[in-house]
Design a protein that fits this description.
With about 325 residues, this protein is mostly helical. Helix content is about 55%, strand content about 10%. The protein folds into two domains: about 210 residues, Rossmann fold; about 80 residues, Tyrosyl-Transfer RNA Synthetase, CATH 1.10.240.10. It contains 13 helices and five strands.
Length: about 325
């Protein structure tokens, strides 16, 4: 039986942290056996904000290294760079021509930018059409998104339906796969982990960086002997993300019965976080020493994704009437 096609884009936005990992990256790895997965580096999407050649190049390389280091397997998934599939921007133009401005003005990203009174570039305004093209050109069945990104898939579905209505049945309708079981990952200050809050633990942090970050986690004034509520502890909230059920049960009991101070709790978290991060960090360092091999993975992925896009665009060009030879 053919597997359903999953598509996900990863915007190259800088250093990743454990909030990014548990919020979305890990799911890509977990789903790679279940679906035929196409994971692309959204470098053209990044250009709405990143307009520096050296910066964008490095960010693209970083995303490839990050995702391969956490366990995406090129034998199981297709990893490629968005800009290696020029058919996507061609399809976006065709979609632009059947899309109205009032419809685009309802997009969250546009409304957010407008609310901040920014001068909005056309890329931000047109972002949903490029994303619809990414999704529809690969005949994606499933697009994993957080609840706040569901609108992107709705725009792709609307666009597919409109095209099908005008030109005849061409695109399948993708479904969002809402990653709702993922709790908000807390930062070292108890708020949501976010680069803008400066409260992150980098995903590939060194042991020293891990120690420095964990030691900053605020605690209440309870003494060593006093029982503590693990569900009110920012230390425990981070710890429970990655330890197994048995270890979690034991740790919860240690908090509740007293006898463990916050210093010990932090030391335990440092030890377990270091053990969790170390293999991924070492794999990333190894990959970074052989970028040619990483580039080959991206080129191979682009060949496969491009074949799909070519096939789809032949149909699209014929349907809209530009195919005359």
């Amino acid at each position: 039986m053919n597997k359903k096609i999953l598509l996900s884009g990863v915007k190259p936005t800088g250093t990743v942290h454990i909030g990014n990992y548990f919020g979305a990256m890990k799911q890509m790895v977990d789903l790679q056996d279940k679906y035929e997965s196409y994971i692309f580096i959204a470098d053209y999407h990044a250009m709405t904000t990143v307009q520096n050649k050296a910066d964008l190049k490095q960010r693209i390389i970083n995303v490839a290294l990050d995702y391969l280091a956490i366990g995406l397997d090129p034998q199981k998934i297709t990893l490629f760079k968005q800009s290696d599939i020029p058919q996507v921007t061609e399809l976006a133009w065709i979609f632009n021509c059947i899309t109205t401005m009032p419809y685009m003005m309802r997009a969250h990203a546009f409304k957010d930018a407008e609310a901040k009174n920014k001068e909005i570039n056309v890329g931000v305004f047109d972002y949903p059409m490029l994303m619809a093209s990414d999704i529809l050109i690969q005949d994606a069945d499933i697009v994993p998104v957080g609840q706040d990104q569901k609108q992107h898939v709705e725009y792709a579905r609307d666009t597919a339906q409109k095209f099908n209505r005008i030109f005849g049945e061409t695109f399948r309708l993708p479904e969002p796969l809402i990653l709702s079981h993922v709790d908000t990952v807390p930062g070292i200050d108890g708020r949501k982990m976010s680069k803008s809050y400066g409260n992150v633990i980098p995903l590939f942090a060194t042991d020293e960086e891990i120690k420095k970050a964990v030691m900053k986690i605020p605690t209440d004034s309870k003494g060593v002997a006093e029982p503590k509520n693990p569900d009110e502890s920012a230390i425990f909230a981070i710890h429970k993300l990655f330890i197994d059920t048995e270890k979690l049960k034991n740790l919860r009991e240690k908090y509740q019965k007293g006898g463990m101070g916050y210093k010990e709790a932090k030391e335990l978290l440092i030890k377990d976080l270091s053990a969790f991060i170390k293999p991924m960090r070492e794999k990333r360092e190894k990959l970074a020493k052989d970028l040619d091999a990483v580039f080959e993975i991206l080129k191979d992925g682009a060949k496969k994704a491009s074949m799909n896009a070519d096939k789809k665009m032949k149909v699209v060009r014929e349907k809209v009437g530009v195919e005359i030879y």
